[in-house]
Amino acid sequence: MTKSKSFVQNLIKQLRFGSSRDRQGEDDLEEIAAKEQKLIQFETLVEATNNFHPNNKLGQGGFGPVYKGKLKDGRVIAVKKLSLYSKQGRKEFMTEAKLLARVQHRNVVNLLGYCVHGSEKLLVYEYVMNESLDKLLFTESSRRGELDWKRRYDIIFGIARGLQYLHVDSHNVIIHRDIKASNILLDDKWVPKIADFGMARLFPEDQTHVNTRVAGTNGYMAPEYVMHGHLSAKADVFSFGVLVLELISGQRNSSFTSFMDAENLLDWAYKLYKKGRSLEIMDPTLASSADPDQVTMCIQIGLLCTQGDPHLRPTMPRVVLILSKRPGNLEEPTRPGIPGSRYRRSRRTSASSSIVGTSGTSGASDSYALTTNTTGTITATATATATANEVASSSSPISRRYDNRGKRPIEG
């Protein structure tokens, strides 16, 4: 038996949670990890982090604390240390270990290895020097000025390419489910890397969507996902569109300060777009570096990605093509989706070449048990027969029950 094979069997033995869903994919993980040889000794990580010294702590998430370390070969690493009391973290550990074992892309964070030592369970990543995007974008510090327009455009483009890889080019179709500013890391060359795959889902190749428990972050989740648990790649596209508009405006969608009686950042951007005044949402710090045509194009892309009807949102390969080719004419976006609102399928045909449709069933039956934690994230158990033609009306009891703070998704 190989060293890696023995490690994975030990990992799986210690991570049996009693749920049949938790045990799904264990055979796949064993097979993948045996090939990838990604075992790192616990003693190596103790030495690299100075015994997980508080001075080396980078942050704390639902998974557990994250520490900075340095290996003997000079590589700087980030070590996610599973909290011993976190059921959520155990689920995330298995999910990340499985999904990232074979993922290799410039715009996706690189998982270097795994470690299990008694009750200690750790994931080891490359260290990304400039930390997360939200720490630079949503701050009044001098560092915000480092995000000039060229860097923001490159970040938009890099995230788009990372999502194209996950949705189309990776070994399995992966839906991230939690694309947001705090899950985008920036390296020393400002290359964006999609991180935190604890909520991600493998997507069946023969299905257009799946119905699942809702878990995500306020302000980034697509309305059909919030209202019905209806998950497809278009949910990630919606989150990407929100992030594009946040990068351009420098404002959080979830804590948006109202302008023009707009409900949120998306609504504000759309109203200005319809008046031919899109550039008014631009972060004032970009005035000296922005390319107005490029900014206008990106605003339109953001609005196309956040349309209420998921069938009208472009795919990520289409977004990458638009960003690389800078076409003269784009489709006209329809109103952005807002959880609790109703949409109707558009009859327009001009956009059909850029949209991949998905089938649905007529009618919907929904039952929700929704909680909102103090960090502003949403957990809901959804039993749904999803419809592709409409989302629940604004009278839905969950349409407005969430606050504006925090970052981390938590499943029940």
Automatic annotation (TrEMBL):
A GO term for molecular function: protein kinase activity
Presence of keyword Glycosyltransferase: no
InterPro entries documented for this protein: CR_Ser/Thr_kinase, Kinase-like_dom_sf, Prot_kinase_dom, Ser/Thr_kinase_AS
Region feature (Disordered): 327-370, 384-412
Tagged with keyword Kinase: yes
Skewed-composition ranges (Low complexity): 349-370
Domain of life: Eukaryota
UniProt biased composition (Basic and acidic residues): 400-412
The entry's keywords: ATP-binding, Kinase, Nucleotide-binding, Transferase
Domain named Protein kinase: residues: 52-338
This protein's name: Cysteine-rich receptor-like protein kinase 43 isoform X1
Source organism: Cucumis melo (Muskmelon)
